[in-house]
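Input.
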Amino acid sequence: MVREKKIGAKIREIRKLKGMTLETLAQKTHLTKGYLSLLENDRKVPPVATLLTIAQALDTRISDIFGETEENASISIVRKDERLAMAHPGTMFGYHYESLAYKYKNKSMDAYILTRPADPQWKPVMFKHEGEEMLYILEGVTEFHYGQESYILRAGDCVYFDSSVEHYGKSLGGKPVKMLMVATLPAQKRQNAE
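Output.
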């Protein structure tokens, strides 16, 4: 099920519940008010890194923005056919991501299968957000940029990093890159969410 049309409405709902103006959210996220308005009106679909930044500014979890239902249990199983697809190729930044563990209540990690299509016209966009992130390459080859460094990562390679440093990746070899992405909230935000 693709839920990208509900993301913007959920951001607006959470922002209003917190009594926050669009301008305040723009200041906290360092995103423009116009861009946030496009998101809230479902005219743009942001990448996971931008959603993490928005979730942190709203003092909530990314799973709340996705409207993911959570079970009240100490274990959660999501079958392959139960994954929530959150965007599809051709949307903003060209990412397709599927939420893997959306049923677990008060989680401290968000896990996704992230696919970056091969696109020779793609222009890099740097991401930066609080927390830590891990990418495990499942298929393809990516050039991963972290700060001033770049690394070639292939299937089976893993990178774990401080996501407050600017980063991005691009597909190499004319083929899409599929990876497991796990992102954490900073410890203080995690405690507030509980």
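The longest helix spans residues 4-17.
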